[in-house]
Amino acid sequence: MAVTRKPAHLEAQGPKGDRQFIWESMRALHRGGDRFTVRDIWLLSTGNSPKGRVRDYITGLVAAGYLKAWATPGKATEYELVRDCGIEAPRVRKDGTEVTQGRGREQMWRTIKIIGDFTARDLAQAASTPEFPVAENTAKDYCTMLAGAEYLAAVRPGSPGVPARYRLVQRRWTGPRAPMIQRLKQLYDPNTGEVVYRRNPQTEEGDE
Amino acid sequence: MSVNTIVPLTNVGLLARAVESAANRSPELPGLVVMYGPSGYGKSLAAAYAANLHRAYYVECRESWTKKAFLTAILREMGIIPMKTLSEMVDQVAEQLSRSGRPIIIDDVQYVIDKSAANVLTDIYNASQGTLILIGEERVPASMARLERLHNRVLEWVPAQAASLDDVQELAQSSYPDIEMADDLLDMVRTRVKGCLRRVAVNLYRIHSEALANNWERVDMDIWGDRNIHTGQPPARRA
Q1: For labelling alongside B123, which of A75, A132, B18, B179 has CA 20 to 30 A away?
Q2: What percent of chain A has pLDDT over 90?
Q3: H helix or E strand, kind and range, residue A186
Q4: Which residues of A touch B55 (CB under 8 A)?
Q5: Cα separation of B35 and B15, whole Å?
Q6: Given an 8 Å threshold on Cβ–Cβ distance, is B51 in contact with A111?
Q7: Is the pLDDT score of A132 beyond 50?
Q8: Is the Cβ pair A8, B95 closer than 8 Å?
Q9: pTM for the complete prediction?
Q10: Which class for B85: exposed (0-12), middle (13-18), buried (19 or more C-beta within 10 A)?
Q11: What is the DSSP letter of A98?
Q12: B152-209: per-residue pLDDT in tens?
């Protein structure tokens, strides 16, 4: 058995949001044994993330204990990655508290893969935890949008009094990040960075 | 917000407790949990709940899987771009498991446990010392006995239980709150399907449809009469 194991290289699939890009940059620098400044990370993002955004995220990571700050008078503060929790960027606010918005959606997306076929009510029940319960109506909207994007197939179509039964279309599973319903009633898939379904294409064109 | 939306099924609770104790074990203890039992016993519901509590990774094995397919599926679930060789891929999986501290649930493990792909499990466990939850059919413990290196790393064996009357009541109540189904009928269903939760669900659906069609608000054995109970057996040929 190998005694020293070189850390494996982990790179997330798909398009990266600000947090994910910043986090992976920090991991890469850390792997090279380097500390880094806000400016280092901002330069790596080639201007895609505003500097203030980089700074806020780093502040949050320090507050949450992922980074340690090394201040030297007269020089920019350097940061060191002291708690590497893997590929997934920690979701922290500027004060270091965890962002839990979207956990219900994440739980539904995970559950859909596990439980075979289901009604919206089944999904709400199976995806609920004491900390993050999922309401039946939330599950219903999510199923409708996912079915619209053909991520779910209707095993039994809904009719008055009989709820629709759905099943995941396996080859449409794009990745671990849960597709999200956006305000315009469209479904965005963060795994591919694409809008995969619009509920009312006509009205939306009219809005623009 | 409803107070308790969790269906407290027996097997859901059993697995949740086992995963809880594995995830919070002291470092010298092994980290494997194995849940096994016949199909239709509600193991997937148990997996979903445990997975959501701990943000666990989840993969469902397929019969055709090679080592490479197995590892690729896990990395895909983690959202990580796979490297080229098997050994690099094992390192990637192990690195992510131990860094994140998230458990991984491997469902339908009977498909890989008798093949060389099973070594992937041993490798991942050894390299990560993570929490691995294996779920599979009744024969899984017997198959695992042959994989000594994996077998003696099991912290807890969790045999899936046949549905209890409580389970059936809970399912009836949560799925069909509009119709009252009497205990004598529910218990008869449970006995006829030998505690298989999936078949219980099929029968509850039929009872519910029949009740709606006949305008029943309450069904018991007398009302149900000699109507059929679906047991999964093909009907006997009539003479």
Answers
A1: B18
A2: 75
A3: strand A186-189
A4: 106
A5: 7
A6: yes
A7: yes
A8: yes
A9: 0.90
A10: exposed
A11: B
A12: 999 999 999 999 999 999 999 988 999 999 999 999 999 999 999 999 999 999 999 9
Paired with B157 in beta bridges are B34
Cβ separation B5–A1 shorter than 8 A = no
The CA distance from B106 to B57, in Å, is: 8
B104 closest CA partner among B128, B82, B64, B131: B131
Query: What contacts B228, CB < 8 A, 6 or more positions away?
Result: B206
Question: How many angstroms separate the CA of residue A71 from the nearest CA in chain B?
Answer: 27
A62 closest CA partner among A44, A80, A49, A86:
A80
| Residue A100 in contact with partner chain B when CB distance is under 8 A | no
Residue A85: which of B4, B78, B100 has the nearest Cβ? B100
Q: What is the pLDDT of residue B194?
A: 93
Instruction: Please say whether the beta carbons of A166 and A153 come within 8 A.
Output: yes
Q: Do B48 and A7 touch (CB under 8 A)?
A: no
Strands of A78-164, DSSP E: 78-81, 117-118, 152-156
Counting every residue written for chain B, the total comes to: 239
Tens-place pLDDT, residues B74-83: 999 999 999 9
Could you give the count of Cα atoms lying within 13 Å of B101 in the half-sphere of its Cβ? Answer: 11
- Buried/exposed A66-94: b ≥16 CB within 10 Å, e otherwise: bbeeeeeeeeeebbebeebbbbbbbbbee
Instruction: Give phi and psi for B150, each to the nearest 5.
Output: -90, -40
- Chain A with chain B: Cβ pairs closer than 8 A: 104
Angle at A178 between CA B104 and CA B125, to 5 degrees: 10
CB contact (8 A) between residue B5 and residue A128:
yes
